[in-house]
């Protein structure tokens, strides 16, 4: 793995970042050590520039007509500030409201302030006020005649008890509290992560007084994310480049940043797809479920998983289908010896029965018979997906076999197979096979009525066939050749 460390441009970079980049205000709202209070005397003295807060849901009704007729305080919160000019301007943007319609605000000179006589502002207790602004609007407070170095209070209140998020997006003429401490510790959990990790936590310490939040510079993508607290949980992108990277953190407010960023490292590793071992299934096993993926038949499938620490990866699985076995065979006769040729597909186990009490499990066996005759050969093929069976009759001739000629051409001469005397044996059985042992005709009893037709009723092709006649007297032929000429 290639090790890579991204250099971090410290204070100047972050200061320019604050000046020119529009930070997500929701990421820096309500810093816990600077929350305004309903008690004026406990209002925080903090940097108000670009600060973001939510009005308190604490009713405290007072002060009718404090900013003109029909105005009243409902749920106030206070901040302190120190003037460094005799003119102060504070602009407050109302972001959105979860209850009520907007906010109102004022600059007051003490915690014992009273409404101006007749509701006419300014007066000694209220230097400026705004009677209300709806979401998306800005309240502008402009006060003059302030004493430099004196403490004043900013009052923000929900109109009719509204609960709203707001941002102090401009302030001038006030003291800007500085950030005097630096972050001294930082670490990642976990510190070795994979691409696509959805819960990666960054931590810094100590919590810095007067900070609105924390800037985290991510070395692998040159992005800066913000958080209100000195901890933040993010997601590692699926395409984050592998390597060892710096994460540098700095405290910030709208007035200042900590002087020296603290940097710590994280290693990002690439998590490759995993190929699951291919498997073969019988056709009747489809479809089936693989962790929510429907396996419908042969093919390549993929499914996304998370490893034990939450890193995503794809598992790729190749599925093959094994059909049921289909068995067949040919054979070659040499006197009383037969060489069998197995033509079966997909079967992997075989059982031969040669019709004379002898069997074999070989694939292509050779068998020698003790005497001529007709034998029913059975082949059974087996696989993990089932079995198949085929039977063929094999005839081994002797020199005494009879040959019969039929000419099914419609001239009424030798058109049918006639076996004289067969009517005396009503339980006779006639079987006719081709040279491959396939049964082409069978009758029980035979009534001297076969004219060369196959099982489907059509005439067989011209050639030599073999007949086997059972359950008749010794004076009738037991077997022999039948020659069909057309």
Give an account of the 3D structure:
This protein is mainly beta. Helix content is 2%, strand content 44%. The chain contains one helix and 33 strands. It has one helix at 11-20; strands at 51-54, 77-82, 87-99, 103-108, 126-133, 138-144, 151-158, 163-172, 185-189, 192-194, 200-205, 213-218, 223-227, 231-234, 243-252, 262-269, 274-282, 288-290, 293-295, 299-306, 312-322, 329-334, 337-342, 349-353, 359-360, 366-368, 373-383, 386-396, 402-406, 429-433, 439-443, 463-470, 479-484. The strands form nine sheets. It has a five-stranded mixed sheet, with no helix packed on it. A five-stranded mixed sheet has the order 29-33-32-30-31, with no helix packed on it. A four-stranded antiparallel sheet has the order 1-8-3-6, with no helix packed on it. Strand 30 and strand 31 (439-443) form a beta hairpin. The longest helix is centred in the first third of the chain and has 10 residues, at 11-20. The radius of gyration is 49 Å and the shape is rod-shaped. It starts with 10 loop residues before the first helix and ends with a strand. The relative contact order is 0.10. Mean pLDDT is 88; it is low at 1-27.
Low-confidence stretches: 1-27
Oligomer: single chain
Roughly how much helix do the residues carry, as a percent range?
under 10%
- Tell me the β content: 35-45%
Mean pLDDT: 88
Radius of gyration: 49 Å
Number of strand elements: 33
The helix count comes to 1
How would you concisely characterize the structure shown here?
With 486 residues, the chain is mainly beta. Helix content is 2%, strand content 44%. It is rod-shaped, with a radius of gyration of 49 Å.
């Amino acid at each position: 793995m290639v090790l890579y460390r991204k250099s971090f441009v410290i204070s100047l970079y972050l200061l320019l970042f604050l000046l020119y980049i529009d930070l997500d205000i929701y990421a820096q709202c309500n810093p816990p050590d600077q929350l305004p209070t309903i008690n004026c005397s406990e209002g925080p003295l903090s940097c108000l520039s670009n600060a973001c807060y939510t009005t308190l849901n604490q009713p405290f009704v007072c002060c009718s007509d404090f900013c003109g007729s029909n105005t009243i305080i409902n749920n106030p919160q206070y901040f302190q500030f120190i003037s460094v000019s005799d003119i102060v301007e504070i602009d407050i943007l109302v972001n959105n409201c979860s209850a009520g319609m907007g906010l109102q605000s004022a600059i007051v000179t003490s915690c014992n302030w009273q409404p101006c006589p007749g509701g006419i502002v300014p007066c000694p207790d209220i230097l400026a006020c705004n009677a209300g602004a709806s979401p998306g609007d800005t309240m502008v407070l402009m006060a003059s005649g302030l004493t430099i170095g004196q403490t004043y209070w900013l009052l923000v209140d929900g109109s009719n008890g509204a609960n709203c998020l707001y941002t102090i997006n401009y302030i001038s003429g006030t003291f800007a509290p500085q950030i005097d401490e630096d972050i001294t510790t930082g670490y990642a959990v976990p510190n070795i992560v994979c691409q696509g990790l959805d819960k990666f936590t960054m931590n810094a310490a100590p919590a810095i007084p007067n900070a609105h939040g924390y800037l985290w510079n991510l070395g692998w993508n040159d992005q800066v994310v913000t958080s209100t607290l000195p901890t933040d949980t993010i997601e590692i992108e699926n395409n984050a480049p592998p390597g060892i990277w710096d994460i540098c953190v700095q405290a910030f407010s709208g007035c200042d940043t900590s002087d020296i960023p603290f940097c710590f490292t994280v290693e990002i590793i690439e998590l490759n797809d995993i190929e699951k071992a291919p498997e073969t299934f019988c056709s009747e096993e489809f479809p089936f479920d693989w962790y929510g993926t429907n396996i419908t038949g042969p093919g390549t499938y993929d499914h996304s998983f998370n490893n034990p620490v939450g890193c995503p990866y794809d598992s790729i699985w190749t599925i093959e289908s094994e059909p049921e076995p289909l068995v067949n065979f040919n054979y070659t006769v040499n006197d009383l010896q037969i060489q069998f040729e197995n033509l079966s597909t997909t079967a992997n186990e075989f059982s031969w029965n040669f019709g004379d009490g002898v069997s074999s499990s070989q694939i292509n066996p050779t068998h020698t018979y003790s005497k001529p005759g007709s034998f029913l050969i059975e082949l059974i093929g087996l696989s993990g997906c089932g079995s198949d069976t085929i039977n063929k009759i094999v005839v081994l001739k002797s020199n005494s076999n009879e040959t019969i000629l039929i000419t099914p051409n419609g001239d009424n001469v030798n058109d049918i197979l006639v076996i004289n005397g067969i009517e005396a044996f009503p339980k006779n059985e006639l079987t006719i096979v081709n040279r491959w042992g396939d049964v082409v005709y069978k009758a029980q009893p035979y009534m001297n009525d076969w004219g060369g037709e196959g099982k489907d009723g059509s005439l067989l092709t011209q050639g030599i066939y073999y007949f086997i006649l059972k359950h008749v007297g010794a004076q009738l032929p037991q077997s022999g050749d039948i020659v069909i000429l057309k």
